[in-house]
Amino acid sequence: MTELEIETMSHYQDFRRPQLRPDAPAKPPELELYMPATPPLAFMATVEFWVRIFRRRHHFRRLFLPLLKEDDEMLADIGFERTDIQWALNLPLKIDALKALEACRRARVCSNVK
Fold first, then answer.
1. pTM to 2 decimals?
2. 72-110: per-residue pLDDT in tens?
3. 17 located within any domain
4. Contact, 67 vs 80, CB < 8 A?
5. What do you get for the CA distance between the two ends of the chain, in Å?
6. Does residue 12 belong to any structural domain of this protein?
7. Helix 97-113 vs helix 82-89: angle between axes, to the nearest 10 degrees?
8. Other C-beta atoms within 10 Å of 108: how many?
9. Residue 86 is part of which domain span?
10. Nearest-angstrom CA–CA distance, 106 and 100
11. Is residue 86 part of a domain?
12. Is residue 4 part of a domain?
């Protein structure tokens, strides 16, 4: 192995991915007047939140799983790394994987510039 390859490998091991805060359901509006048939707004907000979370993760998987079949050079041209995509696929559902991958990409670019 050349010295450049050793530096490159150690560089990837030192990279720390960004810490991200998970999303949370929005607080439902406070109604001034409750009717007898008022739906449970907190429950509806929670269901809407989880449906949005599952759709977002499904969309991410649909976009990025085919990229894992590509070679590393192709991924580098796009600006992603295979390990970053695999990391984003294993994030908890409450964390937006696309935003996490973009933050990881920006952090990697900033660390390469310095």
1. 0.66
2. 999 988 888 899 999 999 999 999 999 999 988 888 878
3. no
4. yes
5. 25
6. no
7. 150
8. 19
9. 40-114
10. 10
11. yes
12. no
